[in-house]
Amino acid sequence: MTARPSRRRVLQQAAALGALPAIASLPAFAQGFPTKPVRLVVPYPPGGSTDILARAFAEPFGRELGQPAIIENRPGAATNIGLEIAARSPADGYTVYFGTSGLASNPHFGPVPTVDVFKDITPISLVATMPFLVAAHPSLPASTPKELIALAKQQPGKLLISSASLETQVKTINKRAGIQLLHVPYKGGAQATNDAIAGHVNLVVALLPVLLPQIKAGKLKPIAISSAQRSPAAPDIPTFQEIGIEGPSPSWFALFVPSGCPAEAIGRLNGAAVAAAKDAELVKRTLGQGIEVKSSSPGQLAELLKRDYETNAVLVKELG
Fold first, then answer.
1. Are 97 and 257 in contact (CB under 8 A)?
2. What percentage of residues in the chain have a pLDDT greater than 70?
3. Quick one: 45 and 102 in the same domain?
4. DSSP states of 158-186
5. Which range has highest mean pLDDT (67-71, 74-78, 286-290)?
6. 8 A C-beta contact, residue 142 and residue 136
7. How far, in Å, CA of 175 to CA of 249, rounded?
8. Is 72:284 a contact under the CB 8 Å cutoff?
9. In this structure, are residues 246 and 176 in contact, taking their beta carbons and an 8 Å threshold?
10. Domain carrying residue 166
11. C-alpha to C-alpha distance for 53 and 43, rounded to whole angstroms
12. Which residue from 61, 66, 137, 300 could staple onto 276, CB 3.0 to 4.6 Å apart?
């Protein structure tokens, strides 16, 4: 009987034939994903609500992955620049797009992305939801939703409202309240807020975590929040619905990767996102800011994106 060669001898023979370099160069997925840091592409500049959430989320997310999750801010074109950079990155799981509900509205309201949100990116998991808030410079002679609407009707097209390119939200408020606030878009919520504090604009609409610290500091005064119910983080702020107006829908935040990403990476990223959403420190850190941390399966996120996309198709007709 011929003796079976030892494992050592097999390796020696493989090395002699040049096979070992090929073994060493096997894809990272054969060795376990991830083996290096993951970058989170955030389509807004530092300091805004999306950036605040992304940085809070990145810590437990990276811990669950066993690799750092590094924030890369790529603002511009109403989130389209960050989206296009992420979608055109290698589909290896190491680039994750920290997307917003703008994915479902930009294709209808513009600027229309060059990326197909249903073909060029793949859902991973929902991360959180936040309501929008309208706040005013303290000098504005209106402190409630009714007072603002009355003032705006007296001065059509005269009151300026800033935002981080939230044109859809401003149009929704104008249409449903029967007023004409003049929108002034910015690249990020921090800049839009600063100009409202300085009095360069009368009002600002932004996500609750951006404006809440300025309201607590007395630099801005709240007018109304966009959620169906008052936020536990700001129970004294009324909702638009309390006066019979359906305000803008709360924003959601979620993770996506370039299409073609291996299933192992998708599963690993989803598992880390689900675990991160249960992190006690993250929940405690965000709850007081008006952020509701959540998670989902890739399929559930795909359904949310599709549903909101279809809702916006109807909304664009309503708003003209």
1. yes
2. 90
3. yes
4. TSEEEESS-HHHHHHHHHHHT--PEEEE-
5. 67-71
6. yes
7. 14
8. no
9. yes
10. 132-243
11. 12
12. 61
